[in-house]
């Protein structure tokens, strides 16, 4: 069976629009190839449509709702977020779930939220060697960063909450800080306008395909959102050895210690900022559990089970 798996080809289908799922697909391909398994990430329109009718792969692993197919190839469906929030594709997911050989989600939270009884929980992973650990030194001025997507109103509102919290925090500390906001989308312009109402320094980078370059030059990572499941940027911040303060949204509490409400968020942030020297936090010790090197076998075992 192991020899047969090595000779297999896996077609991975991810969205046309670049984002977390497409990046996940690229890294899954890399991890599989390191194991000697042929795989390709397909994220162009015609390539995706073709897989509904024909595929020369042995297994199709999709993040898109493959709700019908004219071939008998096994299908694994990985759902990264609450598809009920989607405009159009939400209607196809229930059919795709029933037709898939296996369904996976990255968190227990999403499994319970979508009421998926027969699915596998396999978290997101990253390549740890791709990240440089920040060496925290005593500084008079800190660089605080958040990474989000302004394509979603619920995430944009989270950044507004960070503005309010940081404005309150500034009055209670002596340290100076810059707040770097990474991300693009239709709500960015409105958020930039709102940022002019606050007294601390805010820098907007816009969309950044590889935010680790910014994380590696930062001191502290903040995350606040009203909609999410398992943002990969949390793992990236952990890999960069950044202390993290996050609100309680989606399945983030399955990865790190979260702040249950706005008051606790502010308290945890103040605790970090009042340290003479910001150092590593307990959260980041778990990062080895989320390496592709450690996690890829969980997907390979699913591929094996498709032919048992």
Question: Would you give an account of this structure?
Answer:
Helix 6 (about 155-170) packs across helix 10. The strands form two sheets. This protein has a six-stranded parallel β-sheet, with helices on both faces. It has helices at about 1-5, 20-35, 45-55, 95-100, 110-115, 155-170, 190-195, 210-215, 230-240, 260-275, 290-305, and strands spanning about 10-15, 40, 60, 75-80, 100-105, 120, 140-145, 175-180, 200-205, 220-225, 245. About 40% of the residues are buried. The longest helix is centred in the middle third of the chain and has 18 residues, at about 155-170. The protein is about 35% helix and about 15% strand. The protein has about 300 residues and is an alpha/beta fold. The mean pLDDT is about 90. It is built from eleven helices and eleven strands. The chain folds into two domains: about 1-125 and about 290-305, Rossmann fold, CATH 3.40.50.2000; about 130-290, Rossmann fold (3-Layer(aba) Sandwich), CATH 3.40.50.
Attribute tags:
11 helices; 308 residues; five-stranded parallel β-sheet; 2 domains; six-stranded parallel β-sheet; Rossmann fold; alpha/beta
Order of helices and strands: HEHEHEEHEHEEHEHEHEHEHH
Strand arrangement in the largest pleated sheet:
2-1-3-4-5-6
Sheet with the most strands?
Answer: 6 strands, parallel
CATH topology title of the largest domain: Rossmann fold
Structural class estimated from helices and strands: alpha/beta
Sheet-strand content, in percent, reads 15-25%
Oligomer: single chain
* CATH homology superfamily of the largest domain: Glycogen Phosphorylase B
> Averaging pLDDT over every residue, what do you get?
92
3D shape? elongated
- Tally of strands: 11
Distance between the termini: 9 Å
Compute the gyration radius: what is it? 21 Å
Question: What is the count of helical runs?
Answer: 11
Q: What's the structural domain tally? A: 2
Q: Enumerate the spans where pLDDT stays under 50 for 5 or more consecutive residues.
A: none
Can you tell me the CATH class of the largest domain? Answer: Alpha Beta
CATH architecture of the largest domain: 3-Layer(aba) Sandwich
Q: Helical residue percent?
A: 25-40%
